[in-house]
Amino acid sequence: MEKSNLIEMNNVGIVVENLDNAISFFLEIGLKIEGRGMVEGEWAGRVTGLVNQSVEVVIMITPDGHSRLEISRFIKPTTISDHRTAPVNSLGYLRIMFRVDNIDELIPRLLEKGAELVGEIVQYENVYKLCYIRGTEGLLIGLAEQLNNNEK
Fold first, then answer.
1. Count of alpha carbons within 13 angstroms of residue 150, beta-carbon side
2. Residue 152: predicted pLDDT
3. Is residue 133 within 8 Å of 96, Cβ to Cβ?
4. Entry pTM
5. What does the pLDDT look like over 39-97, one tens digit per residue?
6. CA nearest neighbour of 75 among 43, 46, 50
7. Is 77 exposed, middle or buried (0-12, 13-18, 19+ CB in 10 A)?
8. CA of 132: how far to CAs of 50, 104, 135, in Å?
9. Close Cβ partners of 56 (under 8 Å, ≥ 6 residues apart)
10. What residues does 40 pair with on adjacent strands?
11. Residue 123 reports pLDDT greater than 80
12. pLDDT attached to residue 6
């Protein structure tokens, strides 16, 4: 029997201090909660290398059902470093990009939740409107509105 070459990205994980604020922010973008719970104990620490851990986790899913975001709040052990406000040209985690339907309507709602526009909303040819924002807890989030609806 031939091995399958199917590879599926399951989720992107981020760590935050305030899980409820992060959930509220990503709900505003349009994600839905798929599940929420605790991941703890020795077995979980064996996966992450953090020994005995206690982490509150929420899985959020895009409306199309294809992409997930795992948002974690570490209770034990406490977090030891912070990369949230690194500039866009930093090594490592860069940003999460979402395709949205109406960027001009979404941005004011996100600004009300404390987001900040990094640069400005720009239009790339007749294809996309794009921008970066600093969202909840300073996380870098990209937003793109596809202008040609026939290519969604």
1. 1
2. 46
3. no
4. 0.85
5. 988 888 888 888 888 999 999 999 999 999 999 999 998 888 888 777 778 877 678 99
6. 50
7. middle
8. 32, 13, 9
9. 19, 36, 37, 38, 39, 72, 73, 75
10. 54
11. yes
12. 72
pLDDT at 150: 52
Which residues neighbour 22 within 8 Å (Cβ) at sequence distance 6 or greater? 14, 16, 58, 71, 136, 137
Written as one letter, the residue type at 22 is A
Task: Give the chain's end-to-end CA distance (angstroms, integer).
Answer: 36
Closest CA to 139 of 82, 81, 89, 75: 82
| Structure tokens that stand for 113 in this block | 């939740």
Short-list 109, 111, 112, 135, CA closest to 22 = 135
**DSSP category for residue 124:** E
DSSP H helical ranges for the chain: 19-29, 42-48, 103-112
The DSSP annotation for 55-79 comes to EEEEEEE-TTSS-EEEEEEEEESPP
Instruction: Please tell me the distance from the alpha carbon of residue 120 to that of residue 77, in angstroms, as a whole number.
Output: 38
Instruction: Evaluate whether 143 touches 131 at the Cβ level (below 8 Å).
Output: yes
C-alpha span between 92 and 13 (Å, rounded)? 13
Crossing angle (nearest 10°) for helices 103-112 and 19-29: 160
